[in-house]
Write a sequence for this structure.
């Protein structure tokens, strides 16, 4: 069953097309990896889905979530979906988090907005969510400000906010770019575990094929705003069809990273 249907999504700025007629589907509980170099349009597609594109963007096509065309909704209508039915974990949590609000209140915010939690109930749930995302001493963490946390901790806080309302679709955008390899693997495993537990659909965005291999069964390859290949991971890795896909696979094979370190026991 198709849960998310993206059809002919085109995004432009000042008549310059940056995403060109991209189409893909994500079934309920399915995981899609979106891979491509910087500037390929990966994040813009995610922002279109969640309704956070800049006002200067011109968008055509459709983005249907459980049959509802999200592009046809105004911001007030979209806010009922954002953080509730669909949520996003951003690349740089320090810029996504409010620097002058304790993280516990930030985790509680979507619960208060969508589930009518009191502030006390929201903070209590925030403690539980900090535990769920692997944060030590969650009672202390919820009283911290973002700048008092490490990069890995901030990313876990972002994840706690994203999963707070149990969204049916979670979009994760380059979540481990600034993290060392050990913390990177821990964060990826936490995301994997929580998506599996909640039964959510997942769109995982990255420029890193070994990392994507841990998170998704199907891979969409973007280049210059166009979808150049869409295949399951095994087919893409063993028999890429597009020249750019072949380049990505060759780079992954030649990487200093131990590919098996990322691919062991990924999504199964």
């Amino acid at each position: 069953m198709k849960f998310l249907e993206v059809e002919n999504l085109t995004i432009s700025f000042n008549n310059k097309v940056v995403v060109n007629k991209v189409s893909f589907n994500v079934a309920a509980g399915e995981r899609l990896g979106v891979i491509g170099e910087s500037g390929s349009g990966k994040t813009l597609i995610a922002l279109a889905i969640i309704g956070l594109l800049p006002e200067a963007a011109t968008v055509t096509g459709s983005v249907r979530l459980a049959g509802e065309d999200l592009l046809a909704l105004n911001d007030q209508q979209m806010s009922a979906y954002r953080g509730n039915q669909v949520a996003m974990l951003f690349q740089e949590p320090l810029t996504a988090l409010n620097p002058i609000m304790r993280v516990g209140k930030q985790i509680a915010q979507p619960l208060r907005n969508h589930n009518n939690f009191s502030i006390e109930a929201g903070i209590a749930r925030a403690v539980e969510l900090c535990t769920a995302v692997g944060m030590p001493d969650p009672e202390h963490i919820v009283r911290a400000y973002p700048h008092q946390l490490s990069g890995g901790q901030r990313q876990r806080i972002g994840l706690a906010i994203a999963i707070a309302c149990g969204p049916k679709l979670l979009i994760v955008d380059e979540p481990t770019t600034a993290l060392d390899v050990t913390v990177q693997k821990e964060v990826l495993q936490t995301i994997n575990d929580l998506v599996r537990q909640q039964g959510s659909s997942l769109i995982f965005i990255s420029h890193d094929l070994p990392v994507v291999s841990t998170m998704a069964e199907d891979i969409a390859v973007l280049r210059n705003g166009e979808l150049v290949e869409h295949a399951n991971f095994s087919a893409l890795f063993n028999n890429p069809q597009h020249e750019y896909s072949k380049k990505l696979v060759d780079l992954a094979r030649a990487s200093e990273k131990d590919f098996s370190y990322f691919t062991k026991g990924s999504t199964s």
Strands lie at 2-13, 16-27, 31-35, 57-65, 68-69, 86-89, 169-173, 201-206, 218-223, 226-232. Residues 94-166 form one domain.
